[in-house]
Each structure stands twice: as C-alpha cells, then as structure tokens.
Amino acid sequence: MISRKMLSLLICIVLSGLTLPAISNAEQARLYPAAQRSSPKTEDRQRGMSQQESSMLHKFDDLKFSIECPAGYEAEKYETTISVVLSRGGDKKAFRPNITISSAPNSNPPIDLDRFFNLVLQNFLKDTDFSIVLAEKTKLGNKDVYQLLYKRKAAAKDRNDKVVSTKVLQIYVVEPLRVYAMNYAAAESDFEGYLAVANRILGTFKTLK
Fold it and tell me: What is the model's pLDDT at position 2?
C-alpha cells in the first residue's frame, strides 16, 4: 500500500478537460533543462561549468535513488525526504532556496505516471493559493516524467521578515514499485538565481533497484 504522504496526492478523481497555459520551446529549454538533459556533462558545458568541478554522490538505498551534489552542498535526510539547501550563509530563519526529493512505495495495484500526475493537478486546482505556470510530460535522461511549475501566494518570509510568494518546480517519476517527487522551491525573486545549481543537482537523479 502507498504511504500516507503520497495518499493525499492519489485522490479518486481523474482529471479531464484541463486547459493549461502554453510556453514557447525556447523558454521551456531555458527554464527546465533538468528534465530534458541526457547527461550532467552536457548541461555543464551549456552553463559554462567546469567538468572538473568536484561533486559527491549520495546514495539512499532505502529510498531507492541517488543524486550528486557539487562541492559545498549537502544532502540531508529526513525520514522519506532528502533536502539540499542551495543558499549558503544568510539568515537561517528566512525561507531559503532548496531542493527536496521524496520517495514512497507505489500503490497496489500500481498507479501509472499519467494518472498520478493528473490526480496531482486536480489536487492543486482545488487551492486558490496556487497558480500553475506550466505542466507537461517530458524526459529526465531516458525516463518519462512530468514537470509542474507553479507559484504560491504569501507562502514564506524573506530575510527582512516580509511575507513573499514562492515559485516551485516539481518533477514526478513513477515506477512500478515507487513514486518520486522532486521539488525546487525559492522565493519568487530568488528563483532564477538558484535555477542553474538546482537543475544541475536534479539532473543527476537516478533510481536504484
């Protein structure tokens, strides 16, 4: 059976007839290379990063995935979720750009990627605090995935204790035995500034048997 964390996303109504905003291919490629890349080295060349820059492999055998983090970034585990804080220094009480990756058993019988994502969207559309910018099926390496970009009103406080909106990129991977949800979140004003390192880390995601 699927865990309670994922159960809230697996609601019983299949989404139908949803119209979502369009986005140009050029803008999509600029914003979301993580879900289209073929290898970490390719993206590093595109972004002008040195291929010799050191990174550390983090394997989570119980959660059945691994990621690589550039030097200076740490992956911390909290039960079924991995967290990587992207902003170094600053006020730790303020909302900090971060990546989280969650993993949970698939349902029995297993749900497939298309139905899972449709049900996730239905859940989001019930809450008026969320504004969906992009939702589409794409590739992460050789895997089919869905990515969702949305904004959330008044969701966090910045370093000046001011309530700000957040911008979040999520990538969903569904396999017969497990469901994975990758999440890059930042205050809307910080989103672009940390997008390169977020895409670099998310692009190294691999499932484990």
Answer: 41
CA–CA separation, 40 vs 46, rounded Å? 10
This prediction has a pTM of 0.75
What whole-number distance in Å separates Cα of residue 91 and Cα of residue 81?
23
How many domains does the chain contain in total? 1
Mean pLDDT over 2-9 rounds to: 43
CA–CA dist 199, 183 (Å, integer): 11
Q: How far apart are CA 141 and CA 40, in angstroms?
A: 10
Segment 80-98 shows an average pLDDT of 80
Domain that holds residue 185: 4-16+23-207
Instruction: List beta partners, residue 82.
Output: 77, 101
| Pair type for strands 55-60 and 81-85 | unpaired
The pLDDT assigned to 155 comes to 64
Look at residue 195 in the predicted model and tell me its pLDDT: 93
21: which residues sit within 8 A by CB, 6+ positions away? 132, 133, 134
Q: What is the pLDDT of residues 48-70, one digit of tens each?
A: 344 446 889 999 999 999 999 99
The torsion angles phi and psi of 202, rounded to 5 degrees, stand at: -60, -30
Say which CATH number the domain at 83 has. 3.40.1000.10
Q: Measure the CA–CA gap between 180 and 102, rounded to whole angstroms.
A: 6
Is 149 strand, coil or helix?
Answer: strand
Which residue type, as a one-letter code, is found at position 43? Answer: E
Under a CB-based contact definition with an 8 Å cutoff, are residues 14 and 120 in contact?
Answer: no
